[in-house]
Amino acid sequence: MLIDMVGPSDSTVLVLGDSGTGKELVARALHDSSARASGPFIPVNCGAIPRELLESELFGHRKGAFTGAISDRKGRFELADKGTLFLDEIGDMPIDLQVKLLRVLQERLIDPVGSLLSVPIDVRVIAATHKDIVGLIEKQLFREDLYYRLNVMPIEIRTLSERLDDVPVLFEHFARQHTTNGNKPIRLHPSSMQLFLDYSWPGNVRELANLVDRYSSLYPGQEVDLCKVIPSMVPPGIRALANWSEKGSQAPTVKSDPRITEQLTADVLSAIVSSAECSEQEKMERIEDAQLNHEVEQTILLAQGGGLFPEEGLQLKQHLLDIERNLIRHALSSAEGNVSKTARLLNLQRTTLIEKINKHGLADSA
To answer: Domain end: 121, 136, 157, which one?
Structure first.
């Protein structure tokens, strides 16, 4: 394996791959297989730190170097001494800092901000990016000399859909990582593992890690059968691969829309628990109501600039239409099918509401 070959070397490595493909996992594996494994592994995301702070974060500063520098502070390079520094999203580094990084790689000396003396460092550098570095060079946004200095040992990571054989290994790795309270790592039912192997993984390794985290919280120490998991807790793409009815699913047959974000709030779980002694129709109504509240909350949160978009994205127009339909259905139910009362609840003209009822196929509810 390439990691086993490159790991023991002390050469600089450039890891290339799409977002979420597991570049940091590769960097950690390189560190763990090197002679520096007992030293620190220090990651830093060059795109997440403001430009005015990045130099100090990397190289440190001396007391009084700038406003707020009330004491000496070591940078990431010094913290990684005798170990590995992982520079993630190196393609986002400002061009002027690229010059300083090039000098560090060449001379193995850093200049803390405000210091007149250089500090020697013993650090292996692993850099990573999802960007087209060659394209950035052509646009003069990335230094060509720095690229060649970083690209001593290039490793290109394919998307998870192109290396599905890694899925079981990664699942076990993340399952061990997310064990809590002395529980054993979760396991995946063979038929569910097959669904994982058939899935396209648009969110790459990050999506898989998040799923393992989710199921480790819901089913600690257990074997996970996706056909028995609440459908909304399963990615839309996997739901599309699974035929719940033919598999004899014990999961509620809630109408799930692939455009709606995967996460469910505690309201849904609460609805399921509270509906234990209800009829099947009442159970479905309670769960759908909880899902409706979740959809509205998530949409409002996203509109206000909060929350996270699902990995696979969403179709905005259809998403809003779905929410409109569910709101009208919910209002009709609250008004016991009375159109005039429903129109008042939704602050709509009666004729407008009737048009929307017909458009959404809700005439049977009125």
So the answer is: 157
pLDDT band of 91, cuts 50, 70, 90? very high
Model-wide pTM > 0.70? no
Does some domain include residue 270?
A: no
pLDDT of residue 223: 95
Where residue 122 falls among pLDDT bands split at 50, 70, 90? very high
More confident residue, 309 or 219: 219
**Per-residue exposure over 77-101, b if at least 16 CB sit within 10 Å of its own CB, e if not:** bbebbebbbbbbbbbbbeeeebebb
What are the phi and psi torsion angles at 139 (to 5°)?
-90, 5
In terms of average pLDDT, the best of 65-69, 73-77, 242-246, 322-326 is 73-77
Rounded distance, CA 51 to CA 64, Å?
19
Rounded distance, CA 130 to CA 20, Å?
A: 9
Q: Judge whether 175 and 186 are in contact, CB under 8 Å.
A: yes
Say what the alpha-carbon torsion angle 128, 132, 134, 140 is, to the nearest 10 degrees. -100
Residues 130 and 109 grouped into a single domain: yes
Q: What is the DSSP letter of 103?
A: H
Taking the C-alpha atoms of residue 84 and residue 96, their distance in angstroms, rounded to an integer, is 23
Task: Using the Cα atoms of residue 207, residue 213, residue 215 and residue 218 in order, give the sign of their dihedral.
Answer: negative
Written as six digits, the tokens of 240 are 């599309």
Q: Is the pLDDT of residue 127 over 50?
A: yes
Q: What is the mean pLDDT of the chain?
A: 83
Domain enclosing residue 238, as ranges: 159-251
* Mean pLDDT of the region 313-319: 67
CA distances from 119 to 60, 101, 108, 126, 262 (A): 10, 14, 9, 20, 49
- Under a CB-based contact definition with an 8 Å cutoff, are residues 62 and 50 in contact? no
Tell me the CATH number at 179. Answer: 1.10.8.60
